[in-house]
Design brief:
Elements (H helix, E strand, L loop, with lengths): L8 H21 L1 H5 L4 H38 L1
């Protein structure tokens, strides 16, 4: 059985928002300037922590979008 595989617009929106958020955070924080006065042994943990926090924020954003999509689907059916 052949299935129609279409890309759902919410996935594209979440991807664009995630990429925009990451770029905005990297520019906003000005990594080079922030890390200039940090001891070398703290640079890597700071980068990993920043990356992990960014991924967590993106996951939360995606979760909110999925929740809104689910709510909209429920409201449309009623």
């Amino acid at each position: 059985m052949e299935q129609n595989k279409k890309k759902e617009p919410w996935r594209i929106v979440v991807f664009v928002l995630a990429v925009a958020y990451i770029l905005w955070m990297w520019v906003k924080n000005n990594i080079a300037g922030t890390l200039a006065g940090v001891p070398k042994e703290q640079v890597l943990p700071m980068l990993f922590t920043g990356f992990a926090v960014t991924l967590l924020k993106i996951a939360l954003l995606a979760g909110v979008v999925l929740l809104l999509k689910w709510i909209a689907g429920k409201l449309r059916r009623e």
